[in-house]
Amino acid sequence: MAIIGIWGDSIVYGEVDASGSGWATRLRGYLSEQAEKNNSEWHHTYARGVCGDTSRNLLERFAVEAKSIQPDIVVLAVGINDAAYMGSEADVLVPTGEFENNLRKLVIQAKSYTKKVILVGLTRVNEKLVQPYPYSSKGKSYANRTIEQYDKIIQKVALLENLPFASVSNLILEGDLEEGLHPNSVGHQKLFQHILSLVEKVLAQVERQGLDH
């Protein structure tokens, strides 16, 4: 049995996905169904997505939450809210330097439990609908060129730490977004299928090697 912990923001939570509660919940359901169908080992999946979270917020809660579940596999999917800005694109919620430092700290903390860490990249937005984002009480806006900078930082950290990276920047199209920011059910299904392939590879490694904390 492996314990999988998935941490992130509202996209991990499954915001606005009416049919499936997000890609992380789909992943949990699929792994449970496969275990029952094949009479194989069950894996426990915990989705820890909090709406509005940045890497700064996640860093504040990760240690306590990880300790409570003792994960064998960690999936980190955060950054799009770091790239959000107020008024000017230069006024981002979390500057790029701090974002990279936060992500590195999260990886270090995750590796204190397991070597099996997966980083998930960022989805693009429909800029016509999110400048500003009408459902933000703070007047946040999002721009794809800014999101791309943060996505590249995630790729960089994954490369430096030799971690699997799920690139999703070209996966979700404008038609896969509910209100310009969050994926709809079709978008979450795409994310689930894409990220599942990486999770299954890591699970196979765990099964071959045994749980390596």
Helix vs. strand class? alpha/beta
The total count of strands amounts to: 7
Sheet having the most strands: 5 strands, parallel
- The helix/strand series, from N terminus to C terminus, equals EHHEHEEHEEHEH
* Helix-residue proportion: 40-55%
CATH class membership: Alpha Beta
Number of domains: 1
The radius of gyration computed from the alpha-carbon positions, rounded to a whole number of angstroms, is: 17 Å
CATH superfamily: SGNH hydrolase
User: Given the C-alpha coordinates, what overall shape results?
Assistant: globular
Strand order of the largest sheet: 2-1-3-5-7
Distance between the termini: 13 Å
Strand content: 5-15%
CATH topology descriptor: Rossmann fold
Contiguous uncertain segments of 5+ residues:
none
Can you give the mean pLDDT? 96
CATH architecture: 3-Layer(aba) Sandwich
Number of helices: 6
Protein name: SGNH hydrolase-type esterase domain-containing protein
Domain SGNH hydrolase-type esterase: 8-189
InterPro entries: Iah1-like (IPR045136), SGNH_hydro (IPR013830), SGNH_hydro_sf (IPR036514)
